[in-house]
């Protein structure tokens, strides 16, 4: 893993891996979508239960992406590692998209189940805060003209945002919330029927592969961008 911290090694290693992840993500999305639409209706929720196959993976990847952003921010801030900073920057946009998708699908699912589009529930509010951390991270980087200073300031914000991750995860256990508790990963095993468990797991794997593909593609693009900027600066100095 630490050998891949070298940008040249990273670029060589991820060159064949990135298209494989894109292909796996596409295949899993097709299979997962087919399983989601062929799953039976829920006896209480009817067809609205199918929102789960989008909402749950999106919410999970929103958390995982921010975890990746936070860890990369730590290595960037402490060790001033360029590739770690590129990894943190690359995780922000897809993580924000996954979190926004979780918020939207959660509202669509909550309206028929709860009778309202939004409540200031602990889980919903903490996920909204997670989305705002993503937006704040990206806005802070773009607001500071000095790229190095902007990267350090954003890394600090990224580390602060890690505090919110356990709040999102355990909010339904710590407070009396309207949001249902975990049904997939919980003590005693899952409470989901096998007809719902299979498509959910496939969709979670698809979202994971999709994030990996987007993340690696974005990191590679960021490495190339920095190399071009360095080359231009070198030529300007020589001129």
UniProtKB/TrEMBL annotation:
One Pfam family, short name: Cytochrom_C_asm
Cellular localization per UniProt: Cell inner membrane; Membrane
InterPro entries membership: Cyt_c_assembly, Cyt_c_biogenesis_CcmC, Cyt_c_biogenesis_CcsA/CcmC
Signal peptide: none
Domain Cytochrome c assembly protein: start-end pairs: 22-179
Key words, A-Z: Cell inner membrane, Cell membrane, Cytochrome c-type biogenesis, Membrane, Transmembrane, Transmembrane helix, Transport
Its membrane topology: Multi-pass membrane protein
Transmembrane segments: 20-39, 59-79, 91-110, 122-140, 152-176, 196-219
PANTHER family given in the database record: CYTOCHROME B_B6 PROTEIN-RELATED (PTHR30071:SF1), HEME EXPORTER PROTEIN C (PTHR30071)
Record family assignment: Belongs to the CcmC/CycZ/HelC family.
Protein purpose: Required for the export of heme to the periplasm for the biogenesis of c-type cytochromes.
Protein name per Swiss-Prot or TrEMBL: Heme exporter protein C
């Amino acid at each position: 893993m630490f050998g891949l911290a070298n940008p040249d090694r990273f670029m060589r290693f991820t060159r064949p891996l990135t298209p494989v992840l894109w292909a796996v993500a596409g295949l899993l999305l097709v299979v997962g979508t087919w399983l989601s639409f062929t799953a039976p209706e829920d006896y209480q929720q009817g067809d609205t239960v199918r929102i789960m196959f989008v909402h749950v993976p999106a919410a999970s990847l929103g958390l995982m992406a921010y975890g990746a952003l936070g860890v990369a921010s730590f290595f960037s801030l402490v060790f001033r590692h360029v590739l770690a900073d590129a990894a943190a920057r690359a995780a922000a946009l897809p993580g924000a998209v996954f979190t926004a998708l979780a918020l939207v699908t959660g509202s669509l699912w909550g309206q028929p189940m709860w009778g309202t589009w939004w409540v200031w529930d602990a889980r919903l509010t903490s996920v909204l805060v997670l989305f705002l951390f993503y937006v704040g991270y990206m806005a802070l980087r773009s607001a500071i003209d000095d790229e190095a200073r902007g990267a350090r300031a954003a890394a600090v914000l990224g580390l602060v945002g890690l505090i919110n991750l356990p709040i999102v995860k355990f909010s339904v256990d710590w407070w009396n919330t309207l949001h249902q508790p975990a049904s997939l990963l919980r003590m005693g095993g899952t409470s989901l029927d096998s007809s719902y468990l299979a498509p959910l797991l496939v969709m979670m794997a698809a979202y994971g592969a999709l994030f990996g593909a987007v993340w690696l593609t974005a990191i590679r693009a960021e490495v190339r961008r920095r190399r071009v900027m360095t080359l231009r600066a070198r030529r300007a100095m020589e001129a």
